[in-house]
């Protein structure tokens, strides 16, 4: 009998120790999460809160524990008006039993307002919510960055573009002898001005596109298009550049031609970048072969050159913003390291993939796949500039 009691006590002690250990683990997990975390019970009362949450909201633990979440942490709209309780993510999560992610504004203890990204998950027991976990992160810095990006778009499209247009227009007028006949040397100076300002105009365009797309504001407008037509158009556009280096451009089509629903503007920018890179990084007299083929549910366009290639050690950096391989600089090819970064984001927006294989001094092949199943329309504030 005594033995049985002892066994029972031992068992209970082990269970209690396990429960304590589990509680300590949960506490440690809760405390170690870098984002703000608040747990509520069935009634919506705050039962647990971690340090980052207190820091973001400017409260002490005692101000919030045991208080009704919706009352203690006030949510406001962008204009400062208080959000209706039923419309708050916490209420929606309780009502729907689903995880809700929304950008909201919380009022801190000192009355200041901060934007946060809130993710509320209901804690369900047999399908019924018995509480909720709110994970949130201060978005002030991101919003400030977004504002800076929007400011940059404004400045770049007006203050930078307008004087640049004037430079190009007047340089062209000089070139056409509108200001009197130019000597050969004067004409060569004017041509340098035209080339440099065109390059600068392109750079401003690329920066604008990157900023717009990073701000998540690019419009994707799918229409039925034939990829072959877009590629042919680009090859025609780039022919003078290729001719000036005696580079042969060839197109081979190894698939049934079909129209797919995609965004023509974005596709144009993608292939324009990849094909013009092939011309840039191939020495005079080289060859470029563009092939259109298919793979399962995709159309795949490959652009093969027999140019400088990309050294193995540089290959993993190729899609990183501003990255230029040491070889590109050695061969004195001008560029910014922005083209492929932008191209990769555009391909992502098109639901496709981009990859390449390359051998130093032998050449490079870039592959871009586009889904034949088409693309959903995405509303956005801006269109891409090409
Ligand atoms: P940019 O051409 O303006 O430098 P990109 O982002 O378009 O910038 O390309 C990044 C780098 O990738 C280039 O600087 C070059 O080193 C390398 N690269 C891209 N395409 C090719 C290619 N076809 N052959 C060799 N190197 C290439």
Q: Which features does this protein show?
A:
single chain; 386 residues; alpha+beta; Beta-Lactamase; 4 domains; six-stranded antiparallel beta sheet; five-stranded mixed beta sheet; elongated; binds adenosine-5'-diphosphate
Instruction: Tell me about the largest β-sheet.
Output: 6 strands, antiparallel
The number of helical elements comes to 11
Envelope shape: elongated
CATH class of the largest domain: Alpha Beta
CATH level-four homologous superfamily name of the largest domain: Histidine kinase-like ATPase, C-terminal domain
H-E order = HEEHHHEHEEEHHEHEEHEEHHEE
* Number of spatially distinct domains: 4
What portion of the residues fall into strands of 2 or more residues? 15-25%
Going by helix content, strand content and strand pairing, the class is alpha+beta
Q: How large is the radius of gyration? A: 30 Å
Helix content: 40-55%
CATH fold group of the largest domain: Heat Shock Protein 90
Characterization of the model:
It is built from eleven helices and 13 strands. The longest helix is centred in the middle third of the chain and has 36 residues, at 140-175. A hairpin with a 4-residue loop joins strand 1 (36-41) and strand 2. The protein is elongated. The protein is an alpha+beta fold. It has a six-stranded antiparallel β-sheet. The protein has a five-stranded mixed β-sheet with strand order 8-10-11-13-12, with helices on one face. It has a two-stranded antiparallel ribbon with strand order 7-9. Helix content is 45%, strand content 24%. Helix 9 packs antiparallel against helix 11 (339-349). It folds into four domains: 1-30; 33-138, PAS domain (Beta-Lactamase), CATH 3.30.450.20; 141-216; 218-386, Histidine kinase-like ATPase, C-terminal domain (Heat Shock Protein 90, 2-Layer Sandwich), CATH 3.30.565. It binds adenosine-5'-diphosphate (ADP). Adenosine-5'-diphosphate is lined by residues 273, 277-278, 280-281, 305, 307-310, 318, 323-325, 328, 335-341, 364. Residues 273, 277-278, 280-281, 305, 307-310, 318, 323-325, 328, 335-341, 364 line the site of adenosine-5'-diphosphate.
């Amino acid at each position: 009998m005594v033995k049985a009691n002892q066994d029972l006590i031992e068992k209970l002690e082990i269970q209690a120790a396990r429960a304590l250990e589990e509680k300590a683990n949960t506490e440690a997990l809760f405390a170690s999460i870098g984002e703000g975390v608040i747990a509520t019970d069935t009634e919506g009362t705050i039962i647990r809160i971690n340090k980052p949450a207190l820091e973001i909201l400017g409260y002490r633990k005692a101000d919030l524990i045991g208080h009704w979440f919706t009352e203690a942490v006030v949510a406001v709209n962008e204009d400062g008006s208080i959000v209706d309780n039923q419309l708050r993510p916490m209420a929606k999560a309780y009502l729907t039993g689903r995880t809700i992610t929304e950008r909201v504004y919380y009022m801190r203890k000192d009355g200041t307002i901060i934007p946060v990204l809130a993710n509320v998950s209901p804690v369900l027991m047999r399908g019924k919510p018995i509480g909720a976990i709110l994970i949130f992160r201060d978005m002030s810095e991101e919003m400030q960055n977004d504002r800076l990006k929007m400011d940059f778009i404004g400045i770049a499209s007006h203050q930078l573009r307008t004087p640049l247009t004037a430079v190009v227009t007047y340089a062209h007028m000089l070139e056409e002898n509108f200001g009197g006949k130019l000597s050969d040397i004067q004409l060569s100076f004017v041509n340098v001005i035209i080339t440099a300002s065109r390059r600068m105009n392109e750079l401003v365009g690329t920066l604008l596109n990157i900023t717009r797309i990073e701000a998540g504001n690019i419009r994707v407008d799918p229409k039925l298009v034939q990829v072959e037509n877009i590629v042919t158009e680009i090859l025609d556009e780039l022919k003078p550049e290729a001719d000036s280096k005696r580079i042969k451009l060839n197109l081979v089509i190894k698939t049934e031609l079909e129209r797919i629903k995609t965004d023509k503007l974005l596709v144009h920018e993608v292939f324009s970048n990849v094909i013009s890179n092939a011309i840039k990084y191939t020495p005079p007299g080289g060859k470029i072969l563009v092939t259109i083929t298919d793979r399962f549910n995709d159309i795949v366009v490959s652009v093969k050159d027999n140019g400088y290639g990309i050294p193995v050690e540089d290959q993993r950096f190729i899609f990183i913003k501003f990255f230029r391989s040491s070889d590109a600089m050695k061969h004195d090819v001008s560029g910014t390291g922005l083209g492929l970064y932008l191209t990769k984001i555009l391909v992502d927006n098109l639901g496709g993939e981009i990859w390449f294989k390359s051998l130093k001094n032998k050449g490079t092949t870039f592959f871009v796949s586009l889904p034949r199943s088409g693309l959903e329309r995405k509303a956005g504030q801006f269109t891409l500039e090409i």
